[in-house]
Amino acid sequence: MTIATFPPEPPPPASWTRYLGFSTDAKVIGIQYIVTAFFFFLIGGLLAMVIRGELITPAADLVDRSVYNGIYTMHGTIMLFLFIFPVLNGLNNLLTPTMIGAPDMAFPRLNTAAFWLVPVFGLLLIGSFFVPGGPATAGWWSYPPVSIQNPLGHLINGESMWILAVALSGVSSIMGAVNFVTTILRMRAPGMTLFRMPVFCWTALAAQSLQLIGLPALTGGAVMLLMDLSFGTSFYRPEGGGDPVLYQHFFWFYSHPAVYVIILPVFGIFSELFPVYSRKPLFGYVYVSVASFIIVGLGLVVWVHHMFPSGVAQWMRDLFMATTMLIAVPTGVKVFAWLGTLWGGKLRLTTPMLFCIGGLVNFVFAGITGVMLATVPIDIHVSNTYFVVGHFHYVIYGAAVMGIFAAIYHWFPKFTGRMPYEGLGKLHCLLTFVGANLNFLPMHPLGLMGMPRRVSSYDPEFAFWNVIASLGAFLLGVSVIPFLLNMISSWIRGPRATYNPWNAIGLEWLLPSPPPEDNFGEEVPTVISRPYGYGTGEPLVENQSEIEKRLQLQEVLA
Amino acid sequence: MSSSLPAATNESASTHAHVNHNLTGFIIFLCSESVIFLAFFSGYAILKTSALDWLPPGVEGLEWRTPLVNTAVLISSSGTIMLAEHFKVRERLWLFRGFWLLTMLMGGYFLVGQAVEWHGLAFGFDSGTFGGTFYLLTGFHGLHVATGILLMTIMLIKSFIPGNYVGGEQGVQATSLFWHFVDVIWIILFLLIYVWQ
Hints:
The complex is a heterodimer.
Chain A: H1 2-5, H2 26-55, H3 65-100, H4 108-127, H5 158-186, H6 199-230, H7 244-278, H8 285-299, H9 314-326, H10 328-342, H11 351-374, H12 376-382, H13 386-416, H14 422-440, H15 443-449, H16 463-493, H17 544-557
Helix pairs in contact in A: 2-3, 2-4, 2-16, 3-4, 3-5, 3-13, 4-5, 5-6, 6-7, 6-8, 7-8, 7-10, 7-11, 7-13, 8-10, 11-13, 11-14, 13-14, 13-15, 14-16
Chain B: H1 4-17, H2 22-50, H3 65-89, H4 93-119, H5 128-158, H6 171-195
Helix pairs in contact in B: 2-5, 2-6, 3-4, 3-6, 4-5, 5-6
């Protein structure tokens, strides 16, 4: 009896050098993604520090104006294509297979290739700083006609490298998306129907479907942009009969849904973490899950709200204003479901929980300014001002990055086998929340006062709010220090993590920390109930107590 | 313990069902790939309907008779590849290879026809949005035809490997699907470029 259930000898701890090579293990690739993403996060953050350093005084005195154009362009591009998307793909890699009980991704080698494209296009993008003429200066959206100027006449210039990097990033993301969608659709544990799937997997499925639908449009648009820039076509060149607004359609057809690609997994993270730290089942699980796909559907038909001042027809403005406002409905469903989960729960204010609450507060604020911006008259009034910059930084940094930090602290013990330090984590959370709000809140009054974005000098009347924003930005810069310290030191010598340190429910918490290479291997448990059975005493899988006993025994023996 | 034994065998059966997802992944990829064509088609339609002078000076329009022959060949090749698949399912490998090769030749004929047409045109890809979109659409589609022929070549070579189809092989199905996809795209493209003038 006991011999049959005795845990197999745990394999010797694998060498850390596997993180440097072409591994096909999703858990290794996940960590590779996350570490690479944070490397680029530091570069993008450094550029942000330069931007805010420049803007702390009204005069353009820190960097040259043309250099400034390159810096904000690269800041946006790096943060989106080299930080946010890779870090989310990293979380997807770690969480999707373990949460659904799959041994690995459906296409492990495709996964490896998708990851290794990231450093390739990363180097391409960073390399554009060193070519004659410097990096791309047309802003992260790269609108023609600014983006199809090539005054030096070189075939290899900052803009063409930008386009190539973005196209490669698209290839990598499509490879990833094909993989994630196939894995979620085909490799779930026995008994795990779609409506027994954790919400993170729902949101990952939704977000990756958006990638599959939206990204090819950007790639197509970018190919045409490159041809205009380098090979003399005139798709977007008005003097050749082309239409610059066409590019805006291509760009936003993808890049607006891209915001949902970013925020949906963060909704997933909120939905996973709030139940754990309030000890209550997720309120309205079915609605929260399905709302993800309503967001996908609506998210595909809102892109023109970025183009209200671009000379689109009035009926399009009206239509897209309505669809944009409608998105607040499924999003509101989720927000109220999280509040319903928190309500009356036994809250545990751990680092991940604090990050989630902070992220939720910021997200609600961003949602309110989002509905404001959807309104055509307000949008036209504040278009291209700091109001827009403030809004999307609240979404991306205030909500998404805080959610990502929450996920990192929450699942760190699972995938490294070590506990992160709570004190440093809470300090990080405090600095992030205060820094983000100090940095991005002043941008709203600035925008309403009329300060345009993408300028290195401004009227002294804007100075007060800019100084506060810059101080907030420097605080955000400082906030990275406790984070990095925490990650490095706790990974090396943090206390050992048990298989389920947060007392959470989910297939990933029925694996040892860190999980073996093939996760459950041949012994995938059969799922018998919905996720988040907190406080109900209902087991998630067949023979759950037996599995847990085995894991405890294994930990005692180790 | 005895109760968990049958469960264990069930689980290993389900992991075996996991082994090959290539076709699923490929279909998902094709759906995504169709969006890039959709983007090009809608770009073409927008540029064309809003153009003041669509045709560059000295160009009367596109000759459609030869392309129609090419189109007929390409569309019929969807039929031959279906026949090939039909014989593959019935394990009549030589008939499969024959029709497979015929499909490849028809694809090749289409590509050569395309090249001849390109060669005889009086405008280049820098001749306004008309030239740009024409070469972009036909070129991007041609690239897909070439990819299809390459995939078929690989499948043809693999069909000579002994025991290639023992573990279940989805490459032929996927290639065939891709070929139908390329054909459907061409029909839309032909209507947009040659018929709508």
